[in-house]
Amino acid sequence: MYALQETIRPSADLRNHYSEISKRCREEKEAVIITVNGRGDTVSLSYEEYRRMKARMELLEILAESEEDVRNGRVAPISDTFDDLRNMLEGMK
Prior knowledge:
single chain; about 60% helix
């Protein structure tokens, strides 16, 4: 299972301790929640972690769409799909 560690820091720390926060995000793979007036405002995380998280979300969206297609009967046997692909490829020659 995927569990991202989190730290909470006030917004002043982002200005005054950016390098430390950046290093923590990159090296410790940690999300830093920035607060304003004691309330969560933004989240800082490494670019690598952002890309991983985005890829996971995109995959989950595709899986959710697929489940909806199955529930609504918008599916075809895999053999039909391969036949359609073969025909398309033959038509390209």
